[in-house]
Amino acid sequence: MGQPMLIPVKQQPRLPPLSYAASARDDKFRSRRRGIIIGATIAGSLVVLAALGVAILAHRRYHKKASVRLGSQFVSPKLSWPQNQYGLESSNSFAHMIKGGDNKLLTGVSQFIDKPIIFVEEEIMEATMNLDERCKIGSSYYRAKLDGEVFAVKPAKGDVSAELRMMQMVNHANLIKLAGISIGADGDYAFLVYEFAEKGSLDKWLYQKPPSALPSSSCTVPTLSWVQRLGIALDVANGLLYMHEHTQPSMVHGDMRARNILLTADFRAKISSFSLAKPAAVDAAAPSSDVFAFGLLLLELLSGRAAMEARIGSEIGMLWREIRAVLEAGDKREAKLRKWMDPALGSEYQVDVALSLAGMARACTEEDAARRPKMAEVVFSLSVLVQPLSVADAFEKLWQPSSEDNIRIAGSVAAR
C-alpha cells in the first residue's frame, strides 16, 4: 500500500457541522413508548384497586356470616373460657360476658371448628318445628334445614364445654363433625350443630325392624346387608382406635351404643354424642370399657337385637352370655350360630367369617378387662375380614375358639 498523498491548499476546508437532532421517526417511536408505559401504569393501578375491593367485600361477608344477633347486638363467635379441674374450658364466662354487655372479640369457639358458624336459636326452633318428634334422629338429635343445608342439631343440656373441647381435639372421618353452635337469649349455649347423617342412627336399622323385615314375610323393607354391617363395624373400630391412640391426650368415648352411631347416605358410620368423653388419663381402665361396648355393638350387628332385652317373664336376654353358649357348643356351634344370627340376613354371610366375628365379640366382652384386645388388634382383624374371601381365608379363624374353647388372639398387632 502506497504512502498518503499531500495536496497543498490555500485555506482549511469548511465541513458542515454534525447534527444530533432526532428524526421524525425517532420522535414517533418515543411518543409511542411513553404511551405504553402510561397505559400499563394505569391498568396496573386498576387491577390493584379491584383486588382490594374484592378482599374488602369478602372480609365483610365473612364477618356478617360469623356474627350472631343477640337482641340488638351482634357478637363475634369467638370466646375464651377458664379451665376446670380436667383442663377443659368452662362456658360460664360466656354467659357472664353476654349478660354484662362485653362486646370485645372472643377467641374460643373458633378453636372447635374450621369455619365457625353461629346459628340463630329461633331459626333452629322453626326448622325443627319446636323440636317435634318427627324431626328427631337418634337419641338426642333433630333434623334442621338452615340456610339451604341440612344439619343435625342437638339441644345443649348443662355445661357442654367438655364436648366442645373434645370436638376441638378430633378430626376423623368416622367421628361426627361439629359445624357450629347456637346461643340462647341468656348468653349460654342453646344448640350444638353437627353435620347431617342421612340414614339416621344405627339402632333404627338393627333392632327396631317391623316383622315384615324377616325373610319369611312377603313384604320387604330395607335392612342392613352383611357387607354393610362389616363396614359399619370397621368404621366404628377405626373411630375408637383414633380416639384411643391418635389424640393428645388419648380420649375414651364412654357411651358407645347403636343409637350414638349415625349412618351417612352410603352407610358409612360416624360416632356421635361425646358428652361423656374424657381423657384416658382420668381413668386408666376406661379404654377397655370402650372395647367392651364395641363387643356388644358387634353382637348387635350380628344378631339384629339389642345387647340387653326383656324376654318372656322376668328373663333378661344378654347377648354376650348367649354367644359364649354358642361358641362352646363344640360340633354344634355352626348350627347354633345360624339360629342365633339375624334372620334378616338369610344365607348372605359366610359361617366361618361369622364365627370369627362372634369370637372377636366374645374377646372384647371378657369379664377380665386385662384380657380384652386393644382396638388396634380389632381394626387389623376387621380390615382383613372385609377383604374378598380369597384374601381373608388365612385370617378368618383368628378369633375363633381353639380346641380348648378359649379365644385365640394371635399376638399383639399394631395397626399402623
Automatic annotation (TrEMBL):
It holds the Pfam family PK_Tyr_Ser-Thr. Residues 83-385 form the Protein kinase domain. The chain crosses the membrane at residues 35-58. Gene3D superfamilies: Phosphorylase Kinase, domain 1 (3.30.200.20), Transferase(Phosphotransferase) domain 1 (1.10.510.10). Keywords: Kinase, Membrane, Receptor, Transferase, Transmembrane, Transmembrane helix. SUPFAM superfamilies: Protein kinase-like (PK-like). Coiled coil: none annotated. GO terms for molecular function: ATP binding; protein kinase activity. The keyword Transmembrane helix applies. PANTHER family: LYSM-DOMAIN RECEPTOR-LIKE KINASE-RELATED, SERINE_THREONINE RECEPTOR-LIKE KINASE NFP. This is Serine/threonine receptor-like kinase NFP. It comes from Dichanthelium oligosanthes.
